[in-house]
């Protein structure tokens, strides 16, 4: 058994990490536009520093990013040359509603995405579109404190409805919120949340998540009403937690870490809060403000499929003295059996097979891997070539794991590698942490020509797609 004939091979980017043009054609500021590169970055991302305005002297990578806004035609042509069946991107909410809650959408924003999706359609590429990929309009952060407020539900559903209507016939596959569970680990970058002194941070985060869950269910309802052929998915920052040892305390902790990751997906896929959530809320002193009708909305409008990112597995130990990995907001104990990337992310292809099986066993809904890739430092040789064999090796082994999972019985819709073209890394704000098949000439200080250049992995992935995953050697 191999990959299905209609398997959706492709690549993924996000508006806030690629488009640039951060105030062009009427676009408003978003949360990501306020997150600097450098030492203050993590304070802002974690919600410990409210970014009232830009900090003088700081570099804000999203402001130009790789200028996909002005290069999308040449970039999509390169994706088509690789043979992409699908292209995952996101819509910048503030490009449609600059402050997030205007009475009418910004027509220039509508025009940009219409043209971009038509460009995909020209090459037979199916767009897979995320409505909110970590970029809440700053107007809503300032007015409502972002997803702390229930007012956000109406703002989001209005925005979603405009997108479903304006791009009907151009987009069929939708995701509501990118990596919804990340708001637990990186509240400002995940959901635009900053904290006030004395707040119960767990209460704030889970209440914000409840608002997002209701908004996601209502968006799913609207999508199906506008066009019954629309398919709406949720999106998880995935990766199973392994117990560090067979100590029952390690096993129990790993189970609870997985539950923490999966709680919101449980709601989006099953339509209700899982039974274990009640104990979590009790122990964290969380009292959700659930309005009449909320639970019925969640029950009636679950998602059609489950998408997730996978970069690494994770490891849990009850021993507080165990060493932790570097580089990711979702903390993990170091796994002695795994190698790591240049940024300390643990490389575990078998973990992808394990994660696929665990998710499919749990939900029995189609799965879609919408992010997977290796952030690495690429060097240009004297002849201009970029030999990224390490990236090919990483992706090859993960594709093998996907094939194994399909043979296990997992219903897998597609696979979009993360950062199919180099972009600003969400974790660190760096350009030097490169993921793409296409090199973009830009450095961490924002300098460069933005010239595009194919890497060795470009031709390799083209052959993978041509063979429907059968030819993995170069």
Give a written overview of the molecule.
This protein is of the alpha/beta class. It has a single domain (8-466), classed as Glycosidases (TIM Barrel, Alpha-Beta Barrel), CATH 3.20.20. It is built from 15 helices and 14 strands. It has an 8-stranded parallel beta barrel with strand order 1-2-3-4-5-7-11-12, surrounded by 5 helices. Helix 7 (151-166) runs parallel beside helix 9, helix 9 (201-226) crosses helix 12 (294-300) and helix 13 runs parallel beside helix 14 (389-408). The chain is globular and about 60 Å long. The relative contact order is 0.14. The mean pLDDT is 96.
Topology:
Elements: E1 8-12, H1 15-18, H2 41-45, H3 68-82, E2 86-90, H4 93-96, H5 107-122, E3 126-132, H6 138-144, H7 151-166, E4 173-177, H8 187-191, H9 201-226, E5 231-237, E6 241-243, H10 248-270, H11 276-283, H12 294-300, E7 305-309, E8 314-316, E9 339-340, E10 346-347, H13 349-363, E11 367-371, H14 389-408, E12 412-418, E13 438-440, E14 452-454, H15 456-466
Parallel strand pairs: 1-2, 1-12, 2-3, 3-4, 4-5, 5-7, 6-8, 7-11, 11-12
Antiparallel strand pairs: 9-10, 13-14
Helix pairs in contact: 3-5, 7-9, 9-12, 13-14
How much of the polypeptide forms β-strand, as a percent range? 5-15%
Largest sheet: 8 strands, parallel, barrel
CATH superfamily: Glycosidases
Q: How many β-strand runs? A: 14
Shape: globular
Keywords: Glycosidase, Hydrolase
Family: Belongs to the glycosyl hydrolase 1 family.
GO molecular function: beta-glucosidase activity
GO biological process, one term: carbohydrate catabolic process
């Amino acid at each position: 058994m191999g990959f299905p004939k209609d398997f959706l091979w492709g690549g993924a980017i996000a508006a806030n990490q690629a488009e640039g043009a951060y105030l062009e054609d009427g676009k408003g500021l978003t949360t990501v536009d306020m997150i600097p590169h450098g030492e203050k970055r993590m304070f802002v991302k974690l919600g410990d520093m409210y970014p009232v305005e830009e900090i003088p002297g700081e570099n804000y990578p999203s402001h130009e990013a790789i200028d996909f806004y002005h290069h999308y035609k040449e970039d999509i042509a390169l994706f088509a040359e690789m043979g992409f069946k699908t292209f995952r991107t996101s819509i910048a909410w503030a490009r449609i509603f600059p402050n997030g809650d205007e009475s009418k959408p910004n027509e220039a924003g509508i025009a940009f995405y219409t043209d971009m999706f038509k460009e995909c359609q020209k090459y037979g590429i199916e767009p897979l579109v995320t409505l909110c990929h970590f970029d809440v309009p700053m107007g809503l952060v300032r007015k409502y404190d972002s997803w702390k407020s229930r007012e956000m539900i109406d703002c989001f559903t209005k925005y979603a409805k405009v997108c479903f209507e304006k791009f009907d016939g151009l987009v069929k596959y939708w995701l509501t919120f990118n990596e919804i569970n990340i708001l637990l680990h990186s509240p400002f970058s995940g959901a635009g949340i900053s904290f006030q002194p004395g707040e119960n941070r767990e209460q704030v985060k889970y209440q914000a998540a409840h608002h997002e869950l209701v908004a996601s269910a209502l968006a799913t309802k609207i999508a199906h009403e506008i066009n019954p052929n629309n398919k709406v998915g949720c999106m998880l920052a995935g990766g199973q937690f392994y117990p560090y040892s067979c100590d029952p305390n390690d096993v129990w902790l790993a189970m609870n870490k997985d539950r923490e990751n999966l709680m919101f997906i449980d709601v989006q896929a099953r339509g209700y809060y899982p039974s274990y959530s009640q104990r979590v809320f009790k122990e964290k002193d969380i009292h959700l403000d659930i309005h009449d009708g909320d639970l019925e909305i969640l029950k009636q409008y679950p998602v059609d499929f489950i998408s997730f990112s996978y970069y690494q597995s994770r490891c849990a130990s009850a021993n507080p003295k165990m060493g932790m990995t570097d580089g990711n907001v979702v903390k993990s104990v170091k796994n002695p059996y795994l190698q790591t990337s240049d940024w300390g992310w643990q490389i575990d292809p078998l973990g992808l097979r394990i994660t696929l099986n665990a998710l499919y066993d749990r939900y029995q809904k189609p799965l879609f891997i919408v992010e997977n890739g290796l952030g690495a430092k690429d060097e240009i040789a004297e002849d201009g070539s970029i030999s990224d064999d390490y990236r090919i090796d990483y992706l090859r082994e993960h594709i093998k794991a996907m094939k194994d999972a399909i043979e296990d019985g997992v219903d897998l819709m597609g696979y979009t590698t993360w950062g199919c073209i180099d972009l600003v890394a969400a974790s660190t704000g760096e350009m030097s942490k490169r993921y793409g098949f296409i090199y973009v000439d830009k450095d961490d200080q924002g300098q460069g020509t933005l010239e595009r250049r194919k890497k060795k992995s470009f031709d390799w992935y083209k052959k993978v797609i041509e063979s429907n995953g059968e030819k993995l050697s170069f």
